[in-house]
Amino acid sequence: MPRHDAFHRGFTRLTPATLKAINELVVAAAVDLELEDGRQLRVDTTVVQSDIHHPTDNTLLWDVVRVITRLIARLAAAMERRRIKGFRDRTRSARRRMLEING
Questions:
Q1: CA 70, CA 87: separation in Å to the nearest integer?
Q2: pLDDT (tens digit, 9 = 90+) per residue, 9-35?
Q3: Which residues contact 91 (CB under 8 A, 6 or more apart)?
Q4: Is the CB of residue 49 less than 8 Å from the CB of residue 56?
Q5: Residue 10: predicted pLDDT
Q6: Which whole-number Å values give the CA distances from 19 to 2, 9, 97, in the listed order?
Q7: Please, which of 27, 31, 36, 101 could form a disulfide with 58 given CB 3.0 to 4.6 Å?
Q8: Rounded CA gap, 100 and 61, in Å?
Q9: Which of 68, 62, 53, 54 is nearest to 97 (CA)?
Q10: Angle, helices 91-102/57-78, rounded to nearest 10 degrees
């Protein structure tokens, strides 16, 4: 079990040189995969106001079940399969449980 200061210890190890090296590796991988040419990078930092829900345990669980199910469906489609063996879609039961807890 990590201690409470584990994140801080890891974050302080990120030096400017480390971040530069990580960025160079990401750009090199994008160039190798022919996703980018690596000459120019644009970053969008637009901030958009949106409504968010207060994160409770039941809504966080629902979000996780929904996202993982969507990702598994994409994986199955990429593998040209109807489903992934051993994975059961629990979205209906997770949604019912989330709504039951919300009251």
A1: 12
A2: 887 888 888 888 988 898 889 889 888
A3: 65, 66, 69
A4: no
A5: 81
A6: 24, 16, 42
A7: 101
A8: 13
A9: 62
A10: 170
Taking the model in full, what pTM does it have? Answer: 0.47
Collapsed DSSP state (helix, strand, coil) of residue 51: coil
Instruction: List, for residues 62-100, the tens digit of each pLDDT value.
Output: 899 999 999 999 999 999 988 888 889 999 999 999 888
How far is Cα 18 from Cα 94, in angstroms, rounded to an integer? 41
- The residues, any chain, with a CB within 8 Å of residue 60's CB and separated by 6 or more, are none
Distance (Å, whole) CA 7 – CA 25: 23
Q: Among all chains, which residue has been given the structure tokens 């079940």?
A: 65
**C-beta neighbour count of 36 within 10 angstroms:** 15
Amino acid (1-letter code) at residue 95 = R
Alpha-carbon distance of 34 to 97, in angstroms, equals 44
Are residues 33 and 69 in contact, defined by beta-carbon separation less than 8 angstroms? no
